[in-house]
Amino acid sequence: MLFGFIALLVFMIYDVSSRSDDIATIFIGLFAAILLFYRHRLFAIGLTEGQDILVEIEKNTE
After folding, report:
1. With a threshold of 0.70, does the pTM exceed it?
2. Were both Cys, which of 3, 19, 29, 44 would link to 12 (CB 3.0–4.6 Å)?
3. How does 27-52 read in b/e, with b if 16+ C-beta sit within 10 Å?
């Protein structure tokens, strides 16, 4: 996840330096980075909640 974020930042900087008039690239890159970060966070939250549910099921079946 962190590697993908760093690669995206490097690509953004390279792309902006090659075409300095295109500011939209910065916003698109930042928006994509924010989406990737929040998707990762939501996935991690979903995994922990799923784990808690499995633990509760195990407790109830014993």
Report:
1. no
2. 29
3. eebeeebeeeeeeeeeeeeeeeeeee
